[in-house]
Specification:
The structure holds 2 protein chains of 2 kinds.
Chain A (H helix, E strand, L loop, with lengths): L20 H31 L11 H4 L2 H26 L3 H33 L7 H30 L10 H31 L1
Helix pairs in contact in A: 1-5, 1-6, 3-4, 3-6, 4-5, 5-6
Chain B lengths: L10 H38 L4 H23 L8 H24 L3
Helix pairs in contact in B: 1-2
The chains are: A mainly alpha, B mainly alpha.
Chain lengths: 209, 110
């Protein structure tokens, strides 16, 4: 199959993300990368759990002083919903509906930006209200490394989506870019997987002690 | 090259079948999403209600694991055909992840 060939919804193959050899390779390589990312985040989670509330003196804020449920709930809903909107985008990719796919990807990006805005507000708030910084304690270092690494993944995922949306705007769907969109959506889902454990292990377990 | 993925040698029928199959798949995804939101709300509510931590922590961890399973097996299609290698990569990663966390929570306790 020629990657630049023009298609119609009728001739579009059933698994467009893996219809070319390049697509197959991208798919396999990207899942391998996600397996590695799992290990990377595990080491950050393990470090956080070991160093949680380890502060040099009693005047430092602990997890239960810092975290507030409403903000974390809003962040969780934004990221969870953005995962569903990228599923919608992939649904339209399968149906060869480029415009609708782009629209759902734009919605995904907007939700992701909302999440990022909340996280920036959160970090700034911790700094001003609690003097909780990266260098203030082992707890601070472990907390900002874990949540910050996740936040950096969100930034990268957003930049990736925006680059794909803009670069392919005039091109339409073909077998050259279908694997690119698919792999970016896998990355976005993985960011959500990590967040599920962050909101549970860091925030909710931090609140109950 | 003609790109019909024909099973019936009738491209129009195959096309309609695929559209219906995709739409059905999307309905399952939305149902999965609803369950995920439901689990999230239960987790937050359990913490907000102030139950004993020996009850809350196992429950929210279990809900997180189920939710991540949904994300991997439905949103990311890890259980579908052609995902044997991805499954192996992810489960290997999860195995190492489990060992890492186990080591850190049992060895480091000062």
């Amino acid at each position: 199959m020629n990657a630049d060939e023009k298609y119609t919804p009728q001739t579009w193959p059933e698994g467009p993300e893996r219809a070319t050899l390049e697509g197959k390779n991208k798919f396999l390589g990207f899942w391998f990368f996600l397996g590695g990312e799992t290990v990377l985040f595990a080491s950050l989670f393990a470090t956080y759990i070991a160093l949680k509330d380890k502060v040099p003196s009693p005047d430092h804020a602990l997890a239960k002083d810092l975290f507030e449920l409403p903000l974390v709930f809003v962040m969780t809903m934004l990221l969870l919903t953005s995962s569903l909107t990228s599923v919608y985008a992939m649904y339209h990719l399968k149906n060869y509906d480029f415009k609708k796919m782009q629209l759902w990807l734009v919605i995904t990006v907007l939700l992701g930006l909302g999440f990022l805005g909340c996280e920036i507000y959160e970090f700034v708030h911790y700094y001003h209200a609690f003097d909780h910084t990266f260098t203030s304690s082992a707890f601070g270092s472990a907390f900002y490394t874990l949540t910050g690494f996740h936040g950096a993944h969100v930034i990268f995922g957003l930049a990736w989506f925006i680059a794909l949306i803009v670069r392919n705007a005039g091109r339409g769907l073909n077998l050259y870019n279908a694997p690119k969109f698919y792999v970016a959506s896998l990355y976005w889902h993985f960011i959500d997987v990590v967040w599920v454990f962050i909101f549970t292990v860091v925030y909710l377990m931090g609140m109950v002690g | 090259m003609v790109n019909n993925q024909s099973n019936t040698n009738n491209p129009r029928l195959d096309y309609e079948y695929r559209r219906r199959k995709n739409a059905e798949g999307m309905r399952i995804q939305v149902a999965t999403f609803t369950l995920m939101i439901f689990f999230t709300v239960i987790s937050f509510a359990a913490v907000a209600a102030g139950f004993s931590k020996w009850f809350v922590i196992p429950v929210i961890l279990l809900l997180a694991v189920i939710q991540v399973g949904f994300q991997l097996y439905y949103f990311m299609h890890m259980g579908e055909k052609g995902h044997e290698a991805p499954s192996m990569f992810m489960w290997s990663g999860i195995g190492v992840a489990f060992l890492t966390i186990l080591a850190f929570v049992t060895i480091i306790w000062w």
